[in-house]
């Protein structure tokens, strides 16, 4: 922790001030020194679209650019994103998406970026030709009953459909190769393709099942594949809002990932998602062991120094600067397709954890100092603390007159006595009611029996 | 006339020993019809009989007298006669003709209601009950009549003394329903909400094949009392309540369910507007006999919402200004907030001190340390009571498993259920 070497007085000051001076220090330490070497892409500053898009390849690049265009307010950025999407689409064969992007551009980028009908027609014709060819080849293979060829045939079909944006058909084709897989390498390949398509479709249940299937054949898994599978599993958990599991998966991703999974996720994303989920869901020991002391993950965190800084600040109780980093990151995180709808929840959880961690070691806390540390007003802080106390996450009481928070520990002995007496009363009542009901039932039964006779 | 005279002499002669009384009973049963035929002219014969010695005969005559319709003038004279009878009759003799006794008492009550003087009958009914019951755990048909008189006469304390006893044996389910319903109302009148809740709960969860009106009314009051006492209400009935109740009660009491929704939001304004808009409907939930119709109870629910909100504040705050309390609980002024808090302190619902100089309330912990002798005695007596109850349960269980009707039914149903459940029942059982 920071203040350990200083004299006690400055240590106290630093504890109380809680990172207020730290705010001035932080930007200089993180961005200025490392800035020219390795410019962070997901940072507090406005997103550099070209650099961002360069991290990805394939369909996800286009989807991310479209998402960016839909969700950002700045029309300059919007047009930039759409332009890049257009260029990227021209290199591929997905005419459906192409038409969508053109519609979104709406002629704003000039005559070069309008509907290129000839190109579309040409691509569609080529697609039909290729499809026919593939079909005839597949039929031929099927009559020959050579497993390997059939498998390759279906695989090609899957790739074809994927390139043209027919994701459902692509998925079905990939899954059909399952029956023709002979080695474990084939199985791995099938699983990875299925996972890719499922992620694009947004069906994360399939992702989880195929990840587990792939992990069941460990002998064919090389380290990059393992890393890829862990990323995919992490994404699935993130979508399912299981932040703790997601964090664990992301933290286990090894540095072998590199840029090999750029069709899905970039290492910066691994760092961001993993860091934020860990911060929101891990307790202190787990945070230290798995994040801060984790050498592998440190490599990832280097790519997003702001996230690294904010985790360190949280751990060393500099809450103001931690929350400030979070605030800065928010606008860029909202433009990311996987994490944008989880940002609010994660932020709330992190803030609550910060509040709880702040109050935990003290018997009494001056709320004015706490409000300064968290950069809110005393009234707002009081409201937040009230909701935390009602949820029983902080055991304390607020002295509203003097604005002090007092820790309160429940008296076990009294509570036990109270429960005992209450249980006794309930038992008494229940048994008496039960005897009464039994009597009534017996009476009813006797009555009916006597009527029958 | 002669037969009447003969009957009177026989009554006088045969009322001394138990065997004689049995013979007399047979005679009276045979003469029942002729008695009813002569009902209008039996009054003078009553003077010849002494109620304390010839209770059985007197009862027969009395029952025949009062069988027909009665005018108001006759009612007052009959009331006097019956009153004398009730205070002096002998319990063994009247138990032999229980139906007649019950009908006489019912008519007594009706006449009192007709005359508009329920208070006269309260003490007499109490003695009647005591004489008629075989044990204090036995519920008779007289109990609900007695409670009804108490309610009409507003003598809640007397009614309450009867409610203190536990009931385990019941003759007629209808008696139980009425008893619990009236008993619940008496307890509400005395603000013993916990006991009222128990009684109403018994009505609502009693085994019944079709929902009856008493259960519906009881359920409405149950919801309201539950809100006043606990601040919340579980919308599903426990599993042991009858399926008819579970299915139907909710739809019949929809008004009250919706009230519970607006209550749980904690906003006093919403609750008040809800009550206002539905005011006539609450008022119509009025049964002709009772003074406390549900509107009064509903108003109590509204005021209890303030209490619940203040209670919640004690959990999070150590001290709080009166102004803040007024704001959070949506009271109109600081003075009102102070009044509410003061009332709650006096009722020992919260522990607090009010500092008027600063306008602050300081919430304290429950000072009960559970170290006093009284507390130990209380726990000890609880334990004893519960042990007695458990013994009672095992006894009832044993009796039940020897009951021939249970065994025969169990035999027949055996194939349908698990082997383990019915292991204790024999394979074949012929009664």
Automatic annotation (TrEMBL), chain A:
The PCI domain is annotated at: 242-412
A Pfam entry, by short name: RPN7
Key word Nucleotide-binding present in the record? no
Q: Which domain of life is it from?
A: Eukaryota
Q: What PROSITE patterns does the entry give? A: PCI
- GO CC entries: COP9 signalosome; cytoplasm
Residue ranges of coiled coil: 124-151
Alphabetically list the UniProt keywords: Coiled coil, Cytoplasm, Nucleus, Signalosome
Query: Main localization of the protein?
Result: cytoplasm
Q: Where in the cell is it found?
A: Cytoplasm; Nucleus
Instruction: Report the sequence similarity comment from the record.
Output: Belongs to the CSN1 family.
Name of the protein in question:
PCI domain-containing protein
The lineage is:
Eukaryota, Viridiplantae, Streptophyta, Embryophyta, Tracheophyta
UniProtKB/TrEMBL annotation, chain B:
| Any one Gene Ontology cellular component term annotated for this protein | COP9 signalosome
Q: Where in the cell is it found?
A: Cytoplasm; Nucleus
Q: Any idea which UniProt keywords this protein has?
A: Cytoplasm, Nucleus, Signalosome
Q: Which residues form the PCI domain?
A: 192-368
Against Gene3D superfamilies, the record matches this protein to: 1.25.40.570
Q: Which GO terms of type biological process are on file? A: ubiquitin-dependent protein catabolic process
Mind telling me which InterPro entries this protein's record contains?
A: COP9_N, CSN3, PCI_dom, WH_DNA-bd_sf
Q: Which PANTHER family match?
A: 26S PROTEASOME NON-ATPASE REGULATORY SUBUNIT 3/COP9 SIGNALOSOME COMPLEX SUBUNIT 3, COP9 SIGNALOSOME COMPLEX SUBUNIT 3
The family assignment reads: Belongs to the CSN3 family.
What is the protein's given name?
A: COP9 signalosome complex subunit 3
Please report the organism this UniProt entry assigns to the protein.
Gossypium barbadense
């Amino acid at each position: 922790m920071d203040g350990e070497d200083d004299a006690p007085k400055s240590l106290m000051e630093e504890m109380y001030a809680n990172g207020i001076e730290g705010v001035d220090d932080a930007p200089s330490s993180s961005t200025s020194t490392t800035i020219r070497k390795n410019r962070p892409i997901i940072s507090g500053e406005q997103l550099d679209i070209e650099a961002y898009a360069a991290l990805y390849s394939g369909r996800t690049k286009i989807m991310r650019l479209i998402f960016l265009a839909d969700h950002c307010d700045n029309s300059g950025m919007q047009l930039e994103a759409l332009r890049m999407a257009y260029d990227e689409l021209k290199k591929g064969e997905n005419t459906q998406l192409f038409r969508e992007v053109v519609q979104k551009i709406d002629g704003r980028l000039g005559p070069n970026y309008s509907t290129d009908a000839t190109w579309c027609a040409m691509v569609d014709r080529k697609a039909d030709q290729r499809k026919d060819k593939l079909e005839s080849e597949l039929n031929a293979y099927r009559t020959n009953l050579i497993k390997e060829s059939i498998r390759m045939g279906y695989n090609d079909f899957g790739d074809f459909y994927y390139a043209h944006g027919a994701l459902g058909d692509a998925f079905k084709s990939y899954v059909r190769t399952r029956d023709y897989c002979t080695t474990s390498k084939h199985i791995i390949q099938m699983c990875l393709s299925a996972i890719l398509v499922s992620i694009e479709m947004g069906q994360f249940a399939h992702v989880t099942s195929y990840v587990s299937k792939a992990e069941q054949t460990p002998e064919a898994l090389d380290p990059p594949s393992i890393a890829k599978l862990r990323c995919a599993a992490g994404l699935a958990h993130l979508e399912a809002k299981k932040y703790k599991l997601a964090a664990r998966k992301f933290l286990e991703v090894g540095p072998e990932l590199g840029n090999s999974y750029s069709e899905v996720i970039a290492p910066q994303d691994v760092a961001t998602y993993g860091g934020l989920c860990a911060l929101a869901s891990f307790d202190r020991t787990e945070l230290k062991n798995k994040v801060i002391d984790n050498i592998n993950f440190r490599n990832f965190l280097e790519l997003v120094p702001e996230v690294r800084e904010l985790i360190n600040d949280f751990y060393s109780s500099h809450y103001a600067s931690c929350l400030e980093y979070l605030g800065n990151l928010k606008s860029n995180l909202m433009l990311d397709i996987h994490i944008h709808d989880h940002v609010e929840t994660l932020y709330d959880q992190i803030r609550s954890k910060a509040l709880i961690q702040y109050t935990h070691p003290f018997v009494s806390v001056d709320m004015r100092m706490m409000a300064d540390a968290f950069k809110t007003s005393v009234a707002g802080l009081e409201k937040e603390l009230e909701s935390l106390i009602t949820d029983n996450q902080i055991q304390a009481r607020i002295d509203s007159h003097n604005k002090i928070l007092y820790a309160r520990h429940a008296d076990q002995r009294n509570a036990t006595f109270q429960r005992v007496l209450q249980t006794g009363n309930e038992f008494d009542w229940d048994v008496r009611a039960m005897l009464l009901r039994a009597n009534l039932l017996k009476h009813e039964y006797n009555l009916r029996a006597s009527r029958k006779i | 006339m002669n037969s009447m005279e003969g009957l009177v002499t026989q009554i006088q002669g045969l009322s001394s020993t138990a065997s004689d009384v049995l013979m007399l009973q047979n005679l009276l049963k045979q003469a029942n019809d002729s008695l009813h035929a002569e009902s209008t002219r039996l009054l003078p014969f009553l003077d010849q009989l002494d109620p304390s010695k010839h209770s059985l005969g007197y009862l027969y005559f009395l029952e025949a007298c009062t069988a027909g319709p009665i005018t108001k003038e006759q009612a007052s004279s009959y009331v006097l006669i019956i009153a004398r009878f009730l205070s002096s009759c002998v319990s063994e003799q009247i138990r032999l003709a229980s139906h007649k006794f019950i009908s006489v008492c019912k008519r007594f009550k009706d006449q009192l209601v007709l005359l508009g003087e329920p208070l006269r009958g309260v003490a007499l009914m109490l003695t009647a009950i005591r004489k008629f019951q075989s044990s204090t755990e036995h519920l008779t048909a007289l109990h609900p009549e007695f409670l009804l008189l108490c309610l009409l006469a507003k003598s809640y304390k007397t009614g309450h003394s009867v409610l203190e006893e536990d009931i385990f044996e019941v003759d007629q389910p209808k008696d139980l329903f009425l008893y619990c319903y009236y008993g619940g109302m008496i307890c509400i009148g005395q603000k013993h909400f916990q006991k009222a809740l128990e009684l109403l709960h018994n009505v609502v969860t009693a085994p019944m094949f079709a929902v009856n009106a008493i259960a519906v009314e009881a359920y409405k009051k149950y919801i309201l009392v539950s809100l006043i006492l606990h601040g919340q209400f579980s919308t599903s009935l426990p599993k042991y309540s009858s399926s008819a109740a579970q299915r139907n009660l909710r739809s019949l009491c929809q008004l009250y369910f919706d009230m519970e929704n607006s209550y749980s939001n904690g906003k006093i304004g919403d609750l008040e507007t809800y009550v206002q808009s539905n005011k006539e409907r609450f008022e119509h939930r009025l049964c002709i006999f009772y003074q406390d119709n549900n509107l009064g109870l509903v108003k109590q629910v509204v005021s209890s919402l303030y209490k619940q909100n203040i209670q919640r504040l004690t959990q999070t705050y150590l001290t709080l200004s009166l102004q803040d309390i007024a704001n959070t609980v949506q009271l109109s002024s600081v003075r009102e907030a102070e009044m509410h808090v003061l009332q709650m302190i006096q009722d020992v619902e919260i522990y607090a001190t009010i500092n008027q100089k600063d306008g602050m309330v300081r919430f304290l912990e429950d000072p009960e340390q559970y170290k006093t002798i009284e507390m130990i005695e209380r726990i000890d007596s609880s334990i004893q009571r519960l042990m007695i109850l458990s013994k009672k349960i095992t006894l009832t269980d044993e009796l039940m498993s020897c009951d021939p009707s249970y065994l025969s039914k169990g035999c027949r149903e055996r194939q349908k259920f698990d082997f383990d459940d019915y292991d204790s029942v024999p394979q074949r059982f012929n009664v």
